[in-house]
Amino acid sequence: METTTERNTATFTHLSALTQYFIPFGNYIFPILIWSSKKDKSEFVDYNGKQVLNFQLSLLLYSLVLIMIAVPIFLITFLKNIPFEALINDHDIVLRNFSFEVTSEY
Fold it and tell me: N or C: which end of the chain has fewer CB within 10 A?
């Protein structure tokens, strides 16, 4: 049975992930600090600390993968109207037929 102190520590470990909105990388720093200070004393705090860090690291990994997919798609979409020879020969770049409208082929 978990004590109130253990439950409060686990709760603060989860809530400390919200510090990312105030302090850069606070969602990693503060959960690690709380978890590492109490992990040997309580199995409950150890489990919850691992869960918090696993979730935060998973979000980081998923975000990096999505960025790696989105940036090339954005660049290809945006630069598709620029001739390749203009980039190589350092000519003035003129965007022709550029529009933000969505075209459909129905």
Answer: C
Backbone φ and ψ of 33, nearest 5°:
-65, -45
Query: Could you identify the residue written with the tokens 């990994």?
Result: 61
How does pLDDT run across 13-65, given as a tens digit for each residue? 999 999 999 999 889 999 999 999 998 999 999 999 999 999 999 999 999 99
Global confidence as pTM: 0.69
According to DSSP, residue 105 is labeled -
Domain range summary for the chain, segments of one domain joined by +: 4-69
Radius of gyration of the chain (CA): 24
Which DSSP category does 101 fall into?
A: S
Please tell me the distance from the alpha carbon of residue 15 to that of residue 26, in angstroms, as a whole number.
11
